[in-house]
Please model this.
Amino acid sequence: MAPQYSPRRARIAFSDSAAKQLENITSEAEIHALDRALVVVSVDPDVGEALPGDTAGPQLRQYTDDLERVRLLYWVTALRTGIICGSGCVWAGRSTSAE
Model:
């Protein structure tokens, strides 16, 4: 019997602005929360809700995890790579915003 493999995870990449936001994250709790959200998006890139916009470019999506208090803005390429264009975490009233 052939082994059963789970579906391949999507590759995650960061835009320049998202990479800059990552440089500002210093808290272990924020890093852990962001990692968990990235795993969710890599397992199912369609998990986020589609944001309204024009159809000329890629469909921007938003994934929000209320438990971890994380928000990711991303789009998925034709090769199923999730491009993170912004993220936000809120901890004890402090926010690292995606805008």
